[in-house]
Design a protein that fits this description.
The complex is a heterodimer of chains A (424) and B (336). Chain A has 12 helices and 15 strands. Chain A is an alpha/beta fold and 424 residues long. In chain A, strands 7, 8, 9, 10, 11, 12, 13, 14 and 15 form a 9-stranded mixed β-sheet that branches. A 6-stranded mixed β-sheet of chain A has the order 2-3-1-4-5-6, sandwiched between helices. In chain A, helix 6 links the parallel strand 7 and strand 8. In chain A, helix 2 packs parallel to helix 10, helix 3 packs parallel to helix 4 and helix 5 crosses helix 6. Chain A is globular and about 65 Å long. In chain B, strand 2 and strand 3 form a beta hairpin. The chains are: A alpha/beta (424), B mainly alpha (336). Chains A and B meet through helix 1, helix 3 and helix 4 of A and helix 1, helix 2, helix 13 and helix 15 of B.
């Protein structure tokens, strides 16, 4: 028996040794060349967030293909890693990108928690982390000082819902029920809405929190108060498709409002007529009627078979932004600090409209209030669902019209903040 | 038997030492992965004590990893404890917390055996996950806790190599301790319980107490691994405490070979490198991992550690069959 054990161990050790040697050879590949710009993209390619991850990679790749992976002389080497929608996995992948591939910068992550997990990696390794999607407020607010190498090209969760709350109030809604995914992003989107909506005179009378990625809304739909003017939803990933279906099936008739991801184009093409009338707020809509966007939508759709979502647009715009920086340096990598400085100085004319960064490196941009309509658009033959823009708020920053210092004194939006003072 | 002893010695001392020295040359990422293997192997070995030696399949071992991990993260971020030489005190603290938690949960878990034990440990594990996910004020909820600094005590553990050697040292320590445990009379009693609990009870052993103590020891190892886990990635998230981690710990033991301790480490190494290293090279890594699982279940019920024995059995069977054919043909010849 002892002999068997011994041999077994020998065998095992041999396997381990082979793997380690393989690792040693793997390292040889990461030779540095002056003209190569190595970019790591971390996106969920498996699991419930796979569609959003696919949209991210496609958006970024589409821009690179347009310029033939040549950013002002720097040849881009894009390395895509799957984070599976799990923060610890994302950290592992980021470490791999920095340590093994020696990337100049990495970008990605979808969930707010993933953003919070990746930010310290950038600080630890003094490597730039660009955040195109993860919208956790504090990354560019209360905690920004801890993350000097973090740039956001997307949005903060509460950025679109600040003006949206006011819009809903001016539209005449008085009493609203909020139902959303129970995690930081959901709390912040709904928190932003509640704050401006209630300051304008509206009342959020009930808040329901659904576990993240859960797709059975039965127990929650039956709790929704019937005597309200509208229901505000905050859905992500696989939840978006299910909610409007089950809402209609439960016989509920109140108009649906929502955070940007509730009716985003990553899932809109797969929705049915139940989504018509869904009004949401975001910094992008595929139905945006500008020549730049129409060209973007047509090309994207031809390449990948569906309309681009904000996930696609945000990653496309990030690539464009990096290109602008490289133009200014003549294709040479300027070093992380200098890169951030140039990045910040650029006012970008992007697909979503004019974008620039504030002093905490979060975009100031247009916020679009969009209502789902079924119509023919952009010359496509079929009647389809589109996020038609009903109002544009221009030049909206992460603090909107609030005083920055005052704003930062209040805690970050959470399950309990703002308190639900009108809850019945 | 002599050859076996040499092979055993070689496998136990020379090869691991050579490997430990080879890892740094394989680059910083492989070093991180090697540290991950060392730490997760501690958790896996704790599962092996339960599954392989006592016959109790635990599906909630991530709970104790989580206890240690959250303890380290909370102490470091809220109180600045465990970032200097007091790191070793926190290691001890993780160990104790894991043991305490297991001592409490054990009171419930020990009431069941077999599949019911599996279910009850799963439930207890999910309770801890629920706490991590919901108790925002303490655990940071879904966002988890970021630990920005790593301990510095003589050497700076933010250095990947230093961290790896620390993890390796702990792994060796735990392996040695558990190896002693399983060959001790206590350990042999556990094996006896695995084989037939009623018989052990009839022989006068307090089987409940033995199982309970094994459970507590396993919990302690989990807590210890947890403290290192926090500093490995610099983040603790409810994901770490989730069912998947427990399943992983159970899977690597089954893959490596239950009841061997070192098999748990081997299984961990195979899975970590297939999942985190092969995945960076080829997109079809999941098929390889799945293939390894399926082939192991189908052909190696004793796990990877059972591979040499199986090969030997097959070759001796082959030889026997050949001998039989030879004898038959000889007898046919002699008759004709």
């Amino acid at each position: 028996m002892a002999q068997q054990r011994g041999r077994g161990m020998l065998k095992g050790m041999a396997v381990l040794a082979a793997l380690v040697v393989a690792g040693a050879f793997g390292l040889g590949r990461a030779g540095a060349s002056a003209e190569e710009l190595r970019i790591g993209l971390i996106a969920p390619l498996t699991g419930p967030l796979a569609q959003t991850g696919m949209d991210m990679v496609n958006g970024f790749q589409m821009y690179l293909d347009e310029v033939n992976s040549d950013l002002a002389g720097a040849k881009v080497k894009l390395i895509v890693e799957d984070e599976q929608g799990k923060p610890p996995v994302a950290v592992q992948k980021a470490e791999k990108l920095v340590l093994q591939d020696k990337v100049h910068l990495f970008l990605g992550g979808v969930l707010a928690s993933t953003g919070y997990a990746l930010a310290p990696v950038s600080t630890r390794h003094k490597t730039i982390y660009i955040v195109p999607i993860a919208a956790a407020d504090d990354l560019t607010q209360r905690q920004k000082e801890q993350y000097p190498y973090l740039i956001r090209t997307g949005w903060t969760s509460s950025q679109p819902t600040h003006p949206f709350g006011e819009w809903a109030c001016q539209k005449g809604y008085k009493r609203i029920v909020a139902i959303g995914a129970d995690y930081a992003f959901g709390h912040e989107v709904i928190g932003g809405f509640q704050r401006s909506f209630e300051e304008c005179g509206g009342k959020v009378v009930q808040k329901l929190w659904v576990p993240l990625f859960s797709i059975d809304f039965g127990p929650f739909l039956s709790q929704i108060k019937g005597d309200v003017d509208a229901v505000f939803t905050m859905m992500v990933a696989n939840m978006t498709l299910q909610f409007p279906k089950q809402y209609k099936a439960a016989g509920l008739k109140m108009p649906l409002l929502g955070g940007g991801t509730s009716a985003d184009e990553f899932s809109l093409p797969f929705m049915g007529d139940e989504a018509i009338g869904y009004t949401t707020a975001l910094q992008y809509s595929a139905a945006l009627d500008t020549p730049k966007n129409i060209a973007f939508v047509k090309k994207y759709r031809k390449l990948y078979g569906k309309v681009p979502s904000y996930y696609s647009e945000s990653d496309y715009t990030t690539a464009q932004w990096i290109h602008e920086v490289m133009k200014k340096t003549g294709g040479k990598w300027p070093g992380a600090e200098k890169f951030i400085e140039i990045f910040r100085s650029i006012k970008l004319d992007s697909v979503r409209g004019p974008v620039e960064l504030d002093d905490q490196l979060n975009p100031v941009q247009n916020i679009y209030i969009r209502t789902v309509e079924k119509k023919q658009n952009f010359g496509y033959p079929d009647k389809e669902l589109w996020n038609t823009i009903v109002k544009t708020y221009e030049h909206v920053g992460q603090y909107w019209k609030y005083d920055k210092a005052e704003f930062l004194k209040q805690p970050v939006y959470s399950r309990d903040f703002p308190p639900c003072k009108y809850c019945e | 038997m002599r050859g076996g002893t040499t092979a055993r010695l070689l496998a136990l001392c020379v090869l691991p030492a050579a490997l430990a020295l080879a890892v740094p040359f394989a680059g910083p990422y492989v070093t991180v992965l090697a540290a991950r293997v060392c730490i997760f192997a501690i958790l896996a070995m704790s599962v092996d004590v339960l599954l392989g030696y006592t016959g109790m399949p635990s599906l909630g071992q991530a709970a104790y990893l989580g206890m240690g991990a959250y303890l380290a993260a909370i102490l470091a971020t809220r109180h600045g404890i465990g970032l200097g030489c007091d790191f070793f005190a926190v290691l001890l603290g993780g160990l104790l917390l894991g043991a305490l938690a297991a001592a409490f949960f054990g009171l419930f878990a020990m009431r069941a055996a077999g599949v019911y034990f599996l279910i009850i440990t799963l439930a207890l594990g999910m309770v801890v996950w629920g706490l991590a996910y919901r108790w925002n004020a303490l655990t940071g909820g879904d966002n988890g806790i970021n630990v920005f600094r790593k301990p510095v005590c003589g050497v700076d553990l933010s250095n990947g190599l230093a961290f790896y050697y620390t993890a390796l040292a702990l792994f060796v320590l735990v392996l040695a301790a558990l190896s002693l445990l399983v060959v001790s009379p206590f350990g042999r009693t556990l094996v006896g319980i695995r084989e037939s609990e009623p018989r052990m009870r009839m022989l006068g052993y307090n089987t409940w107490l033995h199982r309970y103590l094994a459970f507590v020891i396993a919990g302690a190892c989990g807590g210890l691994a947890g403290v290192m886990w926090t500093h490995l990635t610099g983040i603790v998230s409810p994901q770490d405490v989730f069912l998947i981690t427990s399943v992983d710990a159970l899977l690597v033991v089954v893959l490596g070979g239950p009841g061997t301790l070192i098999g748990a480490a081997l299984g961990t190494a195979v899975v970590v490198f297939l999942r985190d290293y092969l995945s960076t090279l080829v997109p079809w890594w999941q098929y390889v991992l799945g293939g390894v699982y399926v082939l192991t279940i189908l052909y190696l019920p004793e796990g990877l550690m059972g591979l040499p024995a199986r090969l030997r059995r097959q070759s001796s069977e082959l030889a026997a069959r050949k001998a039989v054919t030879l004898r038959e043909s000889a007898s046919v010849e002699s008759r004709s």
